[in-house]
Amino acid sequence: MNRHTGMNDLSAVIEADRAHVWHHLTQHKPYETVDPKVMVEGKGMKIWDATGKEHLDAVSGGVWTVNIGYGRESMADVIRDQLLKLNYYAGAAGSVPGALFAEKLIGKMPGMSRVYYSNSGSEANEKAFKMIRQIAHRQHGGRKWKILYRERDYHGTTFGALSAGGQAQRNAQYGPFLPGFVEVPHCLEYRSQWGDVDDYGERAADAIEEVILREGPDTVGGLCLEPITAGGGVIVPPAGYWERVQQICEKYDILLHIDEVVCGVGRTGEWFGYQHYGVKPDFVTMAKGVASGYAAISCTVTTEAVFDQFKDDPDDPMGFFRDISTFGGCTSGPAAALENMRIVEEEGLLDNSTKMGERLLGNLNALMEKHAVIGDVRGKGLFCGAELVADRKTKEPAPEAKVKAVAADCMEQGVIIGAQNRSLADGMNNALLFSPALIATESDIDAITEAVDGALGRVFG
């Protein structure tokens, strides 16, 4: 299909979309009078919609997924070849790409050992929650069943994942949630809960210990955290935080589950976000960047110590992890993931994420000097955020409508950026979000921040 195809050629597609497709995270009332956006083609960092308009994508497919960019022929080739050879067999048996990708992946994750396949980040997190609960029954008489999660973190859309979700608006109208999931405080120093403190990172981690002591250490089995909070505002944990978290988990025999669904496979400049901090997790979950959206795949990765707790008498019907993911048996996922990892390695995309991330942060900091509405800039690698405020002194958040207006202005300019949208409590959805593909160039980064510069000027004056 020609990427410059005009609107008339795709009018039937647009009408079919309007009449029958239920879009994610979208209010459809406006589509009674305006056309829904339909994307048609992508190449590299660019994507074209049904009107033929070209966009520079600064959010990797809208939800931080297309890490290696659009239109990779080698990805299509390996997927096609694998589908013709063997497209599927249930995960109770192995497959060639499943075995080879697991081996390759574990090679990037010292201390980890086993890979459990499923097909989405929500599902990968559910598997970890179920493993923690089953370990509680098998090893602790059912007592260590509670799972802690952090305010502002997000772990998916299923009921278990929502029960572990620290975003009030995402959770609204879906309760009551599952028992045994307990929230701990966020670690955003810019909005410190304890005023100005010299050791905020350690203080925020100590707040986790306070929750553990309140709940009872013998009842807490797991702690689930994003390495860098994503949709909650791109929160990079402050110095001392992760080291103290590790100590707390070891002290109270709590399994540490790190959700790398967004940060995993190069987004932050390391293979995984937790690897910036010297942390030794018990579980690592991942999805989006594993195959860059070319195939559906997610992984729940564990240590051998976790895995060993499910090895028992073969005749014991309760002695193994009693779980299945139908589409975890699709072979296209690990086949695509292998090729995705090859591309990241051979093209040096971890280094590029680091270098271009530094440029993106530098450009955003320059914009903060120019626009008083930017209160804070933060990020790591090609994963950055800019928090907008109505007043720098009071840190009053900028109105969500204006934050969304900045993103809409950029879209009109042909640059797609992210904005917090109906996730945190009212009044706190005030950050712009950036996660361009790991192939981004200096000119791409500059084009992104130039669009933001113009949009801020028009929206805020």
TrEMBL record:
A Pfam match: Aminotran_3
Cofactor: pyridoxal 5'-phosphate
Keywords: Aminotransferase, Pyridoxal phosphate, Transferase
One Gene Ontology MF term: pyridoxal phosphate binding
Top-level taxon in the UniProt lineage: Bacteria
Family the entry assigns: Belongs to the class-III pyridoxal-phosphate-dependent aminotransferase family.
Name of protein: Aspartate aminotransferase family protein
Organism: Notoacmeibacter marinus
High-level lineage: Bacteria, Pseudomonadati, Pseudomonadota, Alphaproteobacteria, Hyphomicrobiales
